[in-house]
Write a structure and sequence with these properties.
The structure is a homodimer of 235-residue chains.
Chain A lengths: L4 H41 L2 H29 L5 H34 L8 H24 L2 H31 L4 H33 L18
Helix pairs in contact in A: 1-2, 1-3, 1-4, 2-3, 3-6, 4-5, 4-6, 5-6
Protein name (chains A, B): Phosphate-specific transport system accessory protein PhoU
GO cellular component, one term (chains A, B): cytoplasm
Subunit structure (chains A, B): Homodimer.
């Protein structure tokens, strides 16, 4: 088989297509991470123009997801074997998580333009810290995907509890500001939603980590994971 | 070819597997719709026990998504042709949207137990109306998927603007209650998040509608769609 030049040509081309798929998905992830960082920056700098650019950029991420779907179709039509198929399935799922992360970044940018019509908020500091955690998780899991590193993927999964705890603390803090002064309610509601989105980005990073596990280890079940987002039960 | 009994056996079995995949995905959708209805009911009746059942049931939806992924793997390994492959890709994407809808229903149930520790809220009425709209969209899109009805799928897509408009109105209403009395802030924040989740369920129904289009029509581009969720820009 290995000596059949025709066959080798097909195999090589499949590998090339597969590498292209991985690179596209990683590029999509990098775009989402950059969007997220820009959104946090724009929130801090109160820059409407930059916010609009972030919102417009989200289309490029969506377009890349379509391209990935298209490549997945092409690859799947070639009847891949088990490991290759896991590669394809992981790419399509990871692309879908990244697409959501991009949406959350664009949503934060959108809310920042509303916040810019109101006086500056000191509460933005806690949000930035949560945002930094979310970016860190995202970049780590993309690296785990790039290098097929299950240990790194596992540490991202474990790290989500820290994101959840930071979110719950910020949630409670924002509620107290809202209670202190009704004028804080509208701006802090936007911050609450942005905070929730950052917490959700942590969940999507965890999903990606689980797909890296699935990709490398196959159907093996994952070890259990701690959850610390207790904001749902705040009274 | 058609006279080869061996070949026919393979073809028939593939169709059976594919029908199984569709039925599993529809069953998953039905479970999510039932969970959503129960969550709305539990919010109205302030029933902690029923809320706990909804939260526990979410695992069954997640398990079904895993089963669907497994079946998708098995089918894809058989090297399907273009339309069959679209069927598979649509199933995996639709299952992922349904999984999120199930999460949102469970999250509403979780928040209802927190709300039950506080005095009853009259604002629950507007939330129920939004919930009814979300359930309607979900059931319609599942029917469109079951019957491959692109027109019905298109009407679900168009209907999302109504969900968005209802959400934006409710969002503004809830903010006024929070401003009127600081004691409303914590409970109304939970309602705000539940409302946002219902709006997101509308978005997932729209995603499913777009997958029905993709499934039936292939890569043809979709007509543009109106967006009416203006809550991101409320000041």
């Amino acid at each position: 088989m290995g000596t059949n030049p025709m066959n080798e040509h097909i195999v090589k081309s499949y590998d090339e297509e597969q590498r292209r798929l991985l690179n596209e998905t990683l590029r999509m992830g990098e775009m989402a991470a950059a969007q997220l960082e820009s959104a946090l920056d724009v929130l801090a700098r109160r820059d409407d123009k930059a916010a609009e650019r972030i919102i417009a950029n989200d289309e490029a991420i969506d377009a890349l997801e379509n391209e990935i779907s298209h490549d997945v179709m092409k690859l799947a039509l070639r009847g891949p074997m088990a490991r290759d198929l896991r590669e394809i399935l992981a790419a399509i799922r990871i692309a879908s998580d990244i697409e959501r992360i991009g949406d959350y970044a664009a949503n934060a940018a959108k809310r920042s333009t509303a916040l810019n019509l109101l006086p500056p908020l000191p509460q933005i500091v806690g949000l930035q810290a949560l945002g930094v955690l979310a970016v860190k998780q995202l970049r780590a899991v993309l690296e785990a995907y790039r290098t097929n590193d299950v240990d790194l993927a596992q540490s991202v999964r474990a790290g989500d509890a820290t994101v959840d705890a930071a979110y719950t603390a910020l949630f409670r803090e924002l509620l107290t500001y809202m209670m202190e002064d009704p004028r804080n309610i509208t701006p802090c509601t936007h911050l609450l939603f942005i905070a929730k989105n950052l917490e959700r980005i942590g969940d999507h990073a965890t999903n990606i980590a689980e797909n890296v596990w699935f990709l490398v280890r196959g159907e093996e079940t994952l070890p259990p994971r701690e959850k610390r987002d207790l904001s749902n039960t705040v009274t």
